[in-house]
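## retry 2 of 3
previous attempt timed out at serialization; input unchanged, resubmitting
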Amino acid sequence: MNSSDRRQAILNLLRNYQETIKGSELAERFEVSRQVIVQDIAVLRASGEQVVATPQGYMMISRSGNSDSMKKTIATKHQGNEAIDEELKIIVDNGGKILDVIVEHPVYGEIRGNLMITTRHDIEDFMSRLLSENAEPLCSLTEGVHLHTVDVPDEEAFERIISDLKRKGYLFQEV
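## retry succeeded, writing output
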């Protein structure tokens, strides 16, 4: 299979797959290295395809989206892994899907990390990777201040999230 055919096959697979697919799984399926898959994904993105890399693997961003849901941005501030875990659980337990984390860096500007966290299992996986890799969360660059884009089913779910984050002292409010 040549690279063009492989990229089209990857694109078809991502479009028809409901879950994320790890780069290593794609590499095994197409009998190439993971680095070749990374390059294929880069070429697909450069051609305008909405492929994102999440901690769980690659996925397509739906262009149509769910018309019944709403995307909202939440500003929070906290420090430490326990607070990250608790913040994510508050959002998910109240019906939210955490699409990303965003920080404003003084030199680089906006830095965004795709998360696509929808369940407590996703949170466990994310926290496990954060700890096992001894990685610093993006919010460590901004004294704990960060944004999340969340997808919520309705305004009531969003208000529950805001209320619970505020009660825990995680909701960022400028002084």
